[in-house]
Amino acid sequence: MSTRISHSGIIESIDEGCVHVRIVQTSACVACKVAGYCHASEAKTKIVDVYRSAGGLKVGDAVTVTASTQIAAQALLYGFGIPFVLLVLVLVVVLKLTGNEARAGLSALASLLPYYSVLYFFRNKLRDRFAFEIE
């Protein structure tokens, strides 16, 4: 199994210290011969910001954008895993303490505000940690 996630793309624009790469993210059934008939195929165009890039790049160049699977797993953990555990933990604790389902649900949702605020506050540090690279 590969330890890198890679997508082919084209450089859309270059700013100071940031290269914007347009990639086409496709679902697994795009390559199927009957995908055009069953309407299950899906392709999305996304712009990926690359902050650590090699020099000598220009707009329109075809590049490959990569990231390690370990970084992707950590990003999923910070974005979805920890908030889910926090949500369930606060829900159960407040429900046991108060017995009020509405208060428990609102408290669980409110507990996500400080978490995502901290992530937002450290966004530049996290951006450097969870960065894509150009091969």
- Percentage of residues in DSSP E strands: 25-35%
User: What is the tally of helical segments?
Assistant: 5
List low-confidence stretches: none
- Run of helices and strands: EEHEEHHHHE
Roughly how much helix do the residues carry, as a percent range?
40-55%
Largest sheet: 5 strands, antiparallel
State the end-to-end CA separation.
19 Å
Q: Structural class given helices, strands, pairing?
A: alpha+beta
The average pLDDT score comes to: 82
- Coarse morphology: elongated
- Widest beta sheet: strand line-up: 3-2-1-4-5
Number of strands: 5
Radius of gyration, in angstroms, nearest whole number: 20 Å
Short key terms for the protein model shown above:
135 residues, alpha+beta, five-stranded antiparallel sheet, 5 helices, elongated
List the helices and strands and how they pair.
Layout: E1 4-15, E2 18-26, H1 35-38, E3 43-50, E4 62-68, H2 69-98, H3 101-110, H4 112-121, H5 123-129, E5 133-134
Helix pairs in contact: 2-3, 2-4
Task: Walk me through this protein's architecture.
It is a single chain. This protein has 135 residues and is α+β, with helices and mostly antiparallel strands. Helices cover 45% and strands 28% of the residues. It contains 5 helices and 5 strands. It has helices at 35-38, 69-98, 101-110, 112-121, 123-129; strands at residues 4-15, 18-26, 43-50, 62-68, 133-134. A 5-stranded antiparallel beta sheet has the order 3-2-1-4-5. Strand 1 and strand 2 form a beta hairpin. Helix 2 runs antiparallel to helix 3. The protein is elongated. The two termini are 19 Å apart.
